[in-house]
Amino acid sequence: MPSAWILIAAVIGYLLGSISFAVLVARRRGVDIFQSGSGNPGATNVIRVLGKGPGYLVFFLDFLKGFVAAHWPMAARNFDWLHVVDSTFLWMGIAGLAGAVAGHSFSIFLRFRGGKGVATTIGGLMAIMPLPTLLALVIWNAAFFSSRYVSLASIAFGLSLMPLAALFHEPKELLGLSFLLAMLIIVRHRANLKRLMNGTENKFGKKQDEGTEGQRDKGTKNSDTTKK
Protein backbone atom coordinates (compact mmCIF):
# COMPACT_ATOMS: atom_id res chain seq x y z
CA MET A 1 0.00 0.00 0.00
CA PRO A 2 2.80 2.56 0.68
CA SER A 3 4.04 2.21 -2.92
CA ALA A 4 0.51 2.93 -4.14
CA TRP A 5 0.43 6.21 -2.17
CA ILE A 6 3.82 7.18 -3.60
CA LEU A 7 2.51 6.55 -7.11
CA ILE A 8 -0.65 8.55 -6.37
CA ALA A 9 1.48 11.48 -5.13
CA ALA A 10 3.58 11.35 -8.31
CA VAL A 11 0.49 11.34 -10.55
CA ILE A 12 -1.12 14.24 -8.67
CA GLY A 13 2.17 16.13 -8.88
CA TYR A 14 2.45 15.46 -12.60
CA LEU A 15 -1.07 16.70 -13.32
CA LEU A 16 -0.50 19.84 -11.22
CA GLY A 17 2.85 20.45 -12.91
CA SER A 18 1.33 20.02 -16.37
CA ILE A 19 -0.80 23.15 -15.89
CA SER A 20 1.23 25.77 -17.80
CA PHE A 21 0.44 29.12 -16.24
CA ALA A 22 2.81 30.84 -18.69
CA VAL A 23 0.67 29.61 -21.59
CA LEU A 24 -2.60 30.50 -19.81
CA VAL A 25 -1.53 34.01 -18.74
CA ALA A 26 -0.04 34.79 -22.16
CA ARG A 27 -3.12 33.46 -23.95
CA ARG A 28 -5.34 35.81 -21.95
CA ARG A 29 -3.22 38.64 -23.34
CA GLY A 30 -3.61 37.28 -26.88
CA VAL A 31 0.00 36.04 -27.02
CA ASP A 32 1.31 32.62 -28.02
CA ILE A 33 4.26 32.29 -25.65
CA PHE A 34 5.78 29.52 -27.79
CA GLN A 35 6.08 32.00 -30.66
CA SER A 36 7.27 34.97 -28.59
CA GLY A 37 10.60 35.91 -27.07
CA SER A 38 12.71 32.83 -26.44
CA GLY A 39 9.72 30.55 -27.03
CA ASN A 40 10.07 29.08 -23.54
CA PRO A 41 6.81 28.80 -21.54
CA GLY A 42 8.25 30.11 -18.30
CA ALA A 43 8.15 33.16 -16.05
CA THR A 44 11.35 34.74 -17.43
CA ASN A 45 10.05 34.71 -20.99
CA VAL A 46 6.67 36.06 -19.86
CA ILE A 47 8.46 38.95 -18.14
CA ARG A 48 10.37 39.70 -21.34
CA VAL A 49 7.26 39.54 -23.52
CA LEU A 50 4.45 40.84 -21.28
CA GLY A 51 6.19 42.64 -18.42
CA LYS A 52 6.94 42.08 -14.75
CA GLY A 53 3.33 41.85 -13.51
CA PRO A 54 2.30 38.85 -15.62
CA GLY A 55 5.78 37.32 -15.30
CA TYR A 56 5.84 37.46 -11.50
CA LEU A 57 2.30 36.05 -11.43
CA VAL A 58 3.48 33.08 -13.51
CA PHE A 59 6.50 32.58 -11.24
CA PHE A 60 4.30 32.58 -8.13
CA LEU A 61 1.81 30.11 -9.64
CA ASP A 62 4.59 27.81 -10.87
CA PHE A 63 6.18 28.01 -7.41
CA LEU A 64 2.80 27.26 -5.79
CA LYS A 65 2.08 24.14 -7.84
CA GLY A 66 5.47 22.70 -6.87
CA PHE A 67 4.88 23.57 -3.22
CA VAL A 68 1.40 22.02 -3.15
CA ALA A 69 2.54 18.87 -4.98
CA ALA A 70 5.30 18.25 -2.41
CA HIS A 71 3.60 19.64 0.69
CA TRP A 72 0.26 17.83 0.81
CA PRO A 73 1.88 14.43 1.52
CA MET A 74 4.03 16.03 4.23
CA ALA A 75 0.96 17.72 5.73
CA ALA A 76 -0.91 14.39 5.64
CA ARG A 77 1.65 13.07 8.14
CA ASN A 78 -0.39 14.87 10.82
CA PHE A 79 -3.36 12.59 10.13
CA ASP A 80 -3.67 8.87 10.72
CA TRP A 81 -5.95 7.98 7.82
CA LEU A 82 -3.12 6.98 5.45
CA HIS A 83 -1.68 4.45 7.96
CA VAL A 84 1.89 4.61 6.59
CA VAL A 85 5.29 5.18 8.23
CA ASP A 86 7.10 8.54 8.22
CA SER A 87 9.55 7.50 5.49
CA THR A 88 6.62 6.90 3.14
CA PHE A 89 5.43 10.48 3.63
CA LEU A 90 8.92 11.69 2.69
CA TRP A 91 8.90 9.55 -0.43
CA MET A 92 5.43 10.85 -1.29
CA GLY A 93 6.72 14.43 -1.00
CA ILE A 94 9.68 13.59 -3.22
CA ALA A 95 7.40 11.84 -5.72
CA GLY A 96 5.03 14.81 -5.72
CA LEU A 97 7.87 17.23 -6.45
CA ALA A 98 9.40 14.98 -9.12
CA GLY A 99 5.99 14.60 -10.75
CA ALA A 100 5.37 18.36 -10.72
CA VAL A 101 8.75 19.13 -12.31
CA ALA A 102 8.21 16.41 -14.93
CA GLY A 103 4.74 17.76 -15.65
CA HIS A 104 6.01 21.33 -15.98
CA SER A 105 8.81 20.27 -18.33
CA PHE A 106 6.82 17.70 -20.32
CA SER A 107 3.18 18.73 -19.97
CA ILE A 108 0.53 16.25 -21.06
CA PHE A 109 -1.61 19.26 -22.02
CA LEU A 110 1.08 20.73 -24.32
CA ARG A 111 2.07 17.59 -26.24
CA PHE A 112 4.87 16.98 -23.74
CA ARG A 113 6.44 20.40 -24.18
CA GLY A 114 7.13 22.74 -21.28
CA GLY A 115 9.41 25.06 -19.38
CA LYS A 116 12.62 24.53 -17.47
CA GLY A 117 10.91 23.93 -14.12
CA VAL A 118 13.06 26.13 -11.86
CA ALA A 119 10.16 27.93 -10.10
CA THR A 120 8.31 24.64 -9.63
CA THR A 121 11.49 23.04 -8.25
CA ILE A 122 11.97 25.89 -5.78
CA GLY A 123 8.37 25.60 -4.59
CA GLY A 124 8.61 21.86 -4.02
CA LEU A 125 11.95 22.11 -2.25
CA MET A 126 10.62 24.79 0.07
CA ALA A 127 8.03 22.25 1.20
CA ILE A 128 10.44 19.41 2.00
CA MET A 129 13.82 21.05 2.84
CA PRO A 130 13.25 24.78 3.42
CA LEU A 131 16.58 25.84 4.97
CA PRO A 132 18.90 24.51 2.23
CA THR A 133 16.49 25.92 -0.35
CA LEU A 134 16.54 29.38 1.22
CA LEU A 135 20.35 29.41 1.15
CA ALA A 136 20.31 28.19 -2.45
CA LEU A 137 18.02 31.13 -3.25
CA VAL A 138 20.61 33.47 -1.71
CA ILE A 139 23.13 31.97 -4.12
CA TRP A 140 20.63 32.40 -6.99
CA ASN A 141 20.26 36.08 -6.14
CA ALA A 142 24.01 36.60 -5.81
CA ALA A 143 24.64 34.97 -9.21
CA PHE A 144 21.79 36.86 -10.85
CA PHE A 145 22.54 40.35 -9.57
CA SER A 146 26.25 39.99 -10.29
CA SER A 147 25.72 38.74 -13.86
CA ARG A 148 22.09 39.57 -14.85
CA TYR A 149 21.86 36.08 -16.39
CA VAL A 150 18.78 34.17 -15.18
CA SER A 151 20.13 30.96 -16.71
CA LEU A 152 23.45 31.22 -14.87
CA ALA A 153 21.65 31.94 -11.59
CA SER A 154 19.39 28.92 -12.09
CA ILE A 155 22.36 26.65 -12.74
CA ALA A 156 24.14 28.03 -9.65
CA PHE A 157 20.98 27.32 -7.64
CA GLY A 158 20.87 23.73 -8.89
CA LEU A 159 24.54 23.04 -8.23
CA SER A 160 24.32 24.39 -4.67
CA LEU A 161 21.41 22.15 -3.64
CA MET A 162 23.28 18.93 -2.83
CA PRO A 163 26.14 20.53 -0.81
CA LEU A 164 23.62 22.60 1.19
CA ALA A 165 21.41 19.56 1.80
CA ALA A 166 24.48 17.71 3.10
CA LEU A 167 25.41 20.71 5.28
CA PHE A 168 22.02 20.54 7.00
CA HIS A 169 22.19 16.74 7.34
CA GLU A 170 19.12 16.13 5.22
CA PRO A 171 18.13 12.46 4.65
CA LYS A 172 20.00 10.61 1.92
CA GLU A 173 16.79 10.51 -0.11
CA LEU A 174 16.86 14.32 -0.33
CA LEU A 175 20.57 14.29 -1.18
CA GLY A 176 19.78 12.04 -4.13
CA LEU A 177 16.85 14.23 -5.13
CA SER A 178 19.05 17.34 -4.98
CA PHE A 179 21.59 15.71 -7.29
CA LEU A 180 18.93 14.63 -9.81
CA LEU A 181 17.28 18.07 -9.80
CA ALA A 182 20.65 19.75 -10.36
CA MET A 183 21.29 17.49 -13.36
CA LEU A 184 17.81 18.22 -14.73
CA ILE A 185 18.31 21.98 -14.40
CA ILE A 186 21.65 21.75 -16.22
CA VAL A 187 20.19 19.58 -19.01
CA ARG A 188 17.20 21.91 -19.44
CA HIS A 189 19.62 24.87 -19.68
CA ARG A 190 22.10 23.26 -22.08
CA ALA A 191 21.24 25.73 -24.87
CA ASN A 192 21.75 28.60 -22.43
CA LEU A 193 25.12 27.14 -21.43
CA LYS A 194 26.24 27.15 -25.05
CA ARG A 195 25.18 30.77 -25.44
CA LEU A 196 26.93 31.70 -22.18
CA MET A 197 30.16 30.14 -23.44
CA ASN A 198 29.75 31.89 -26.80
CA GLY A 199 28.91 35.22 -25.17
CA THR A 200 25.52 35.42 -26.90
CA GLU A 201 23.21 34.79 -23.93
CA ASN A 202 20.72 37.61 -23.31
CA LYS A 203 20.95 39.41 -19.98
CA PHE A 204 17.77 39.98 -18.04
CA GLY A 205 16.19 43.33 -18.91
CA LYS A 206 18.08 43.66 -22.17
CA LYS A 207 15.94 43.56 -25.27
CA GLN A 208 16.77 40.78 -27.67
CA ASP A 209 18.69 41.86 -30.74
CA GLU A 210 18.97 45.37 -29.30
CA GLY A 211 22.53 45.70 -30.52
CA THR A 212 21.69 44.29 -33.93
CA GLU A 213 18.82 46.71 -34.32
CA GLY A 214 21.06 49.60 -33.32
CA GLN A 215 23.65 48.62 -35.91
CA ARG A 216 20.92 48.18 -38.49
CA ASP A 217 19.61 51.69 -37.75
CA LYS A 218 23.14 53.05 -37.90
CA GLY A 219 23.72 51.32 -41.21
CA THR A 220 20.51 52.77 -42.59
CA LYS A 221 21.51 56.28 -41.55
CA ASN A 222 24.94 55.89 -43.17
CA SER A 223 23.31 54.62 -46.31
CA ASP A 224 20.94 57.60 -46.40
CA THR A 225 23.84 59.98 -45.84
CA THR A 226 25.76 58.40 -48.74
CA LYS A 227 22.78 58.73 -51.02
CA LYS A 228 22.48 62.41 -50.18
In words, what does this structure look like?
The chain is mostly helical. The protein folds into two domains: 128 residues, no CATH class; 78 residues, no CATH class. Helices cover 73% and strands 0% of the residues. It has eleven helices and no strands. The longest helix has 24 residues. The C terminus is likely disordered.
How many strands?
Answer: 0
* Total number of helices: 11
The main sheet comes to: none
Q: What percent of residues adopt helix (DSSP H or I)?
A: over 70%
Distance N terminus to C terminus? 83 Å
Q: Structural class, judged by helices and strands?
A: mainly alpha
Total of domains:
2
Which radius of gyration do the C-alpha atoms yield?
A: 20 Å
- List the quaternary state of the chains: single chain
Furnish the topology, listing elements before pairings.
Elements lengths: L1 H16 L3 H8 L14 H8 L1 H24 L10 H20 L12 H11 L1 H18 L2 H18 L4 H17 L1 H9 L11 H18 L1
Helix pairs in contact: 1-4, 1-5, 2-4, 3-4, 4-5, 4-6, 5-6, 6-7, 7-8, 8-9
Summarize the structure.
This protein has 228 residues and is mainly α. It is built from eleven helices and no strands.
Which features would summarize this protein structure in a list?
228 residues; mainly alpha; 2 domains; 73% helix; globular; disordered C terminus
